């Protein structure tokens, strides 16, 4: 189980998680090792341009929502690569802050704490 798998499990259980992802596919939105905060999301509220934590074809990504069609969300990086479509049940969280700076347009998108 990788770091993102562990983070996804925690977010899916309702926890807001802060961690430092690695990689360059989301530059300049997220740079490698920047501190990100991911909170549980209501997948039906995700919009194109949101950064989500989602599972596509067995891999967990912290990537952009590039399209939606009602029951699925298309995930891709910030360099134009599309990872694929995934169902709402595999969209776990929304990036709400990067290095402590809140991301805009999160109102009404977070899943209520049970």
Automatic annotation (TrEMBL):
InterPro entries in UniProt: LexA/Signal_pep-like_sf
Domain of life according to the entry: Bacteria
Protein name according to UniProt: S26 family signal peptidase
């Amino acid at each position: 189980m990788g770091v993102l798998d562990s983070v996804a499990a925690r977010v899916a259980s309702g926890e807001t998680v802060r961690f430092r992802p690695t990689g360059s596919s989301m530059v300049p939105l997220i740079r490698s090792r920047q501190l990100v905060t991911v909170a549980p999301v209501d997948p039906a509220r995700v919009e194109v341009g949101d950064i989500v934590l989602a599972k596509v074809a067995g891999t967990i990504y912290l990537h952009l929502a590039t399209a939606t069609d009602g029951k699925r969300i298309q995930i891709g990086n910030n360099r134009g690569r599309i990872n694929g479509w995934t169902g709402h049940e595999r969209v776990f969280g929304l990036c709400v802050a990067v290095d402590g700076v809140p991301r805009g347009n999160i109102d009404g998108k977070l899943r209520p704490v049970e």
